[in-house]
Amino acid sequence: MLKSGLIGFGASVALASMAAADVTLDLGSHTLTGNQLANAGSHLLVGHVTGFTITFDYVSNTAGSWASDMVLLIAPPGVAGTAWGGFNTQFDAPNNGGLWGFDGAGSAASGTYTDTKTWDSTAGGIWEFGIGNGWTTSPEVSYNNVVLTLHGSIVPAPGAFALLGLAGLAGSRRRRG
User: What percent of the chain shows pLDDT beyond 70?
Assistant: First the structure.
């Protein structure tokens, strides 16, 4: 009895710590020409976001475009979308989050780029993400391995908690048998 109580306590501590954690999302790889926006996924999230870190591999086979032309668009449910980056377009996003820390000609070379931004948003439901090429006349470039880490008190899809609960039940059942 004590053992199952300790397991339950441990599980509740683990769930509580997960509830106040950063969430890392794989937004994929996208090859885009100028003024092209790609859907980078939808994720069920609940909580308060205080900022994010984005990392991606930029590949340009021709001169003229920069990694800072990449636009990240985040649209929480029921909240106007916000875009960061870009040169001369942000795809009509209602809110401008600002430029990247690696803005300008210093980001012309292919390589890995990362930036951290402060941003405040609270919402629960389906969050939409987009990656775009924010220079309208840009040649084709690639934004590969785009990883976005949302900072704050965020809970990912409730299905993750359901799977943890089932795993706990299966483990306790196995030990008894």
Answer: 77
Give the separation between CA 118 and CA 51, rounded to whole angstroms: 4
Distances (CA, A) of 61 to 28, 64, 102, 109, 141: 20, 10, 19, 10, 7
Domain covering 22-156, topology: Jelly Rolls (2.60.120)
User: Residue 172, Cβ neighbours under 10 Å: how many?
Assistant: 13
Residues in the chain: 177
Mean pLDDT of 20-29: 92
Percent of the chain's residues with pLDDT above 90: 67
Rounded Cα distance between 80 and 18, Å, is 27
Q: What is the pLDDT of residue 170?
A: 52
Token pair for 143:
């934004």
Q: What is the pTM of this model?
A: 0.79
The structural domains of the chain, with segments of one domain joined by +, span: 22-156
pLDDT of residue 2: 45
Distance CA 108, CA 141 (A): 11
Rounded Cα distance, 1 and 105, in Å: 65
How far is Cα 46 from Cα 63, in angstroms, rounded to an integer?
41
